[in-house]
């Protein structure tokens, strides 16, 4: 090596478009505010009109930055005619429901089927999708764990987990899990190396702060 030569590492940036889908009032917008902006949730509710956007850069290693672009899709069915345009070029999806609300869980299949019918990866495969039950800080649980497990396996979810946006439980952990999956897919590696990766789309245990449920 010639004296005085300086070696420079080239920084790379990888962008992922992440959809956030589910019924109104399940906590999608509050999740984005918490994760991206660090904002506390507020009591008043304002429905998303169409779609909202938010971006966050994550240092992955010394040479790589991941840029996540969250697309917060409105939960009212009247906007589903526009979801094909919103879903375009998505690389992952979080479908959210309210753990205390049976109706929001019952709509999960509707949202997943809408997603799968309109959005595919370049190789024709379904985009990676996890199911998140928000409001784990509340005790009411009308939907049994086994029912959620079965839905995830029947409809090709990576798995499901719980979150409390209000108490800030499993927010960053959920995103980290999804990003690991995306990076392994990006580099063509198997997802089986992901810590706590569920077998067959079951429950994803992310932290020690989760409540026990039947």
Helix-and-strand structural type = alpha/beta
Average pLDDT number: 83
In sequence order, what are the helices and strands, one letter per element?
EHEEHEHHEHEH
Shape: globular
- The fraction of residues in strands falls at 15-25%
Radius of gyration: 18 Å
**How much helix is in the residues?**
25-40%
How are strands sequenced across the largest beta sheet?
2-3-1-4-5-6
Total helical elements: 6
Give the N-terminus to C-terminus distance in angstroms: 64 Å
- The count of strands amounts to 6
Main β-sheet: number of strands, strand sense, barrel status?
Answer: 6 strands, mixed
Query: What low-confidence regions span 5 or more consecutive residues with pLDDT below 50?
Result: 190-195
Structure description:
27% of the residues lie in helices and 23% in strands. The chain has 214 residues and is an alpha/beta fold. It has helices at 28-37, 83-87, 102-106, 108-118, 145-154, 171-186, and strands at residues 12-22, 51-61, 64-73, 92-98, 129-134, 159-163. A 6-stranded mixed sheet has the order 2-3-1-4-5-6, sandwiched between helices.
Summarize the structure.
The protein is α/β, with parallel strands linked by helices and 214 residues long. It contains six helices and six strands; from the N terminus they run E-H-E-E-H-E-H-H-E-H-E-H.
Keywords:
about 210 residues; alpha/beta
């Amino acid at each position: 090596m010639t004296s005085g030569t300086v070696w420079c590492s080239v920084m790379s940036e990888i962008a992922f478009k992440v959809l956030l889908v589910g019924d109104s009032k399940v906590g999608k917008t509050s999740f984005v505010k918490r994760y991206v902006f660090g904002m506390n949730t507020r009591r008043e509710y304002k429905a998303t009109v169409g779609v909202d956007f938010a971006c966050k850069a994550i240092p992955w290693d010394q040479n790589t930055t991941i840029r996540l672009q969250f697309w917060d899709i409105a939960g009212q069915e009247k906007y589903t005619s526009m979801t094909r345009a919103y879903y375009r070029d998505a690389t992952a999806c979080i479908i959210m429901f309210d753990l205390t609300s049976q109706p929001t869980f019952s709509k999960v299949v509707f949202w997943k089927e809408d997603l799968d019918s309109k959005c595919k990866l370049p190789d024709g495969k379904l985009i990676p999708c996890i199911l998140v039950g928000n409001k784990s800080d509340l005790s009411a649980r009308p939907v049994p764990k086994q029912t959620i497990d079965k839905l995830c396996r029947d409809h090709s979810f990576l798995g499901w987990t719980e979150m409390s946006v209000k108490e800030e439980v499993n927010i960053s952990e959920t995103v980290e899990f999804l990003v690991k999956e995306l990076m392994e897919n990006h580099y063509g590696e198997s997802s089986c190396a992901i810590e706590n990766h569920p077998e067959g789309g079951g429950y994803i245990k992310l932290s020690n702060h989760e409540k026990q449920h039947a």
